[in-house]
């Protein structure tokens, strides 16, 4: 059935609701904040009561899109309104809605009026409400386990897709990831990649980020009798095997908080960092890393102990961003060791308010998905100035900020 207004068997209200659903779907075609260049979207919703299932396929110029959108399409309210228009069509209430949305051209719509069978793809809970008694405890646990496993597999598929999409081919044998989550918000994702040539020590073209399935898994506290978890660790083998471990200890801070005692998937020696932060300051602008590279950065840790301001080899810098319209600007006072590692920092807003004071982990690792920005990346901004300061100037800011 076409959504063409001239179609006599489609009410005007029905056309409006289908149009709103289509626009909702189009608006969700975004991946990592970048609009997806799609050519065709094929969707089928199956509804039983207020429950149901959604199947979606997205085609691009390069073939089927196997990744995950930034936002879930789910069940828009217009879909339920459309279903509730029981007299909008002479055949009565429909159970499936199938939309085919081309990037250019006419959207086609098809309603299905045959009630889904029990062995269909609709979730068991949806059918039980209408046709079966309440499931047993064993059935419930089985359904929860199935749901959990499906989400974990989707997370693993999303990670593998990022690696396979890398311009530099990675003959990887194992991927280890740890996501840290607090209040449903992912604070950090750490990743270690083992290849046939050893640990992968460069940057990926795409960020692994936080797949939607991971958010689903966290928000559904029923996946475990212990409630919501704080960390999820996945180990993905090249052969497809995935092992999972949940950590239930609460995150201590809304900032990245790691110590040398924290178990991490991979620990790389400091000498693997071949570029020093001081070599990337403005006086060496021609050596800036490409803008599409992610920075190496270590996670937040507790303040450094037994600090001596004139410790040999330490250098101190002040990085200033004067700000612009809609941007407060900032000042960063940074302590950098003789190898170019940022050890401590004080970050302040331009009005003098302190944003953060902290030290950095010294058992440095490769971080491929960290949105902390290091000194070199900040200094590469033409609106940012960086100048060397004395140890006493740094110490004054450190103590004033509560370090």
Describe this entry's structure for a reader:
- Residues 131-142 have a biased composition (Basic and acidic residues).
- By secondary structure, this protein is an alpha+beta fold.
- It is 21% helix and 28% strand.
- The protein contains seven helices and 18 strands.
- The protein has helices at 12-27, 77-84, 124-131, 137-164, 212-219, 375-379, 391-400, and strands spanning 30-31, 34-35, 38-48, 51-60, 63-64, 96-102, 108-112, 172-182, 185-195, 198-199, 231-237, 242-247, 300-301, 315-321, 330-336, 342-349, 354-360, 385-389.
- Helix 1 (12-27) packs antiparallel against helix 2 (77-84) and helix 4 (137-164) runs antiparallel to helix 5 (212-219).
- The protein is globular, with a radius of gyration of 26 Å.
- It starts with 11 loop residues before the first helix and ends with a helix.
CATH class of the largest domain: Alpha Beta
> How many β-strand runs?
18
Counting DSSP H or I runs of 4 or more residues, the number of helices is 7
The name of the CATH architecture of the largest domain is 2-Layer Sandwich
Number of domains: 3
CATH topology of the largest domain: Murine Class I Major Histocompatibility Complex, H2-DB, Chain A, domain 1
What's the CATH superfamily of the largest domain, by name?
BH3703-like domains
Strand order within the widest sheet? Answer: 13-17-16-15-14-18
Mean pLDDT: 67
Kindly state the percentage of residues in helix. 10-25%
Structural class: alpha+beta
- How much of the sequence is in beta strands? 25-35%
Quick one: overall form?
A: globular
Order of helices and strands: HEEEEEHEEHHEEEHEEEEEEEHEH
The major sheet is characterized as: 6 strands, antiparallel
**Termini, distance in Å?**
67 Å
| Rg over C-alpha atoms, rounded to the nearest angstrom | 26 Å
Low-confidence stretches: 1-9, 118-134, 253-310, 360-373
